[in-house]
Amino acid sequence: MTNTTTTDAIPAPPPSRIPVRGGGMFPVRRIYCVGRNFADHAKEMGAVAPASKAERGQPVFFLKPADAIVTDGVVPYPHGTHDLHHEIELVVALGRDAPAGVLDAHSADKLIYGYGVGLDLTRRDLQTAAKAKGLPWDTGKAFDHSAPVSELVQASQVRDLDALTLTLQVNGQTRQHGALSDLIWNVDDILHELSKLYALRAGDLIFMGTPAGVGPLQVGDAFVARLDGIVELHGEIAVPTGTGVA
After folding, report:
1. Residue at 3 is within a domain
2. How many domains are contained in the chain?
């Protein structure tokens, strides 16, 4: 009789997990990110911001690996860059699979498990160089430790996202501040648009985009990211790991 049992050729890595306020852990499947979702940030990056929601076109999406999350706040300065930038963002965690087909924006909130705050860390010099050559800029966004994130707060504990703001302080100084009511595409819009391109599943995270004020981080910098009144992420930029050159 043929043995059909299969075993892994190498040990399988454990999934990345995020603590949940009140207990439990949230396993991460994928990380979707939204670019240019605040008009003021789009302008500071040299892009044309839509004058109205009717003119907003299509959202910009990119991905980070699930194991890029950092939950203890300690972020080693990444290799290959001399221009690491912070971008504070609302993080949305999905607790249910989306139905087949394009998701109705009006029912998108049923998928949401909870919310957090995170940083979309960016190797800006690598991103800028790739953009100038018309090349993909994955190396500027999708790298180790590029997605620090707070604990998650269940959606039932967050009443009105539009009434909330994001604030990032570095070494005690405010660098970024923005209202979620200023998002070009809100959470329901983004889940609807993502569902046109991907099968959304429980365990997915969405980093929703950053307000203006992005800027550099250096080794030794301490940061506090806040989804004001809901959750905070405290962290620091540590010396690079390994033997590579920062």
Report:
1. no
2. 1
Contact 114, 19 (CB under 8 A): no
CATH number at residue 72: 3.90.850.10
Give yes or no for a contact between 50 and 83, defined as CB atoms under 8 angstroms apart.
no
In a domain, 243, yes or no: no
User: Is residue 70 within 8 Å of 19, Cβ to Cβ?
Assistant: no
Does residue 76 sit within a domain?
A: yes
Q: What is the pLDDT of residue 243?
A: 45
Digit-coded pLDDT (tens) for 82-141: 999 999 999 999 999 999 999 999 999 999 999 999 999 999 999 999 999 999 999 999
Burial 52-63 (b: 16+ CB within 10 A, else e): eeeebeebeebe
Could you tell me the end-to-end alpha-carbon distance of the chain, in angstroms, rounded to an integer?
A: 56
Residue 164 domain boundaries: 21-238
Residue 226 in domain: yes
The pLDDT value recorded for residue 56 is 78
Distance CA 246, CA 77 (A): 7
The predicted model scores a pTM of 0.93
User: What integer best gives the mean pLDDT of the chain?
Assistant: 93
**Alpha-carbon span 62 to 46, nearest angstrom:** 18
Q: What pLDDT, on the 0 to 100 scale, is given for residue 244?
A: 45
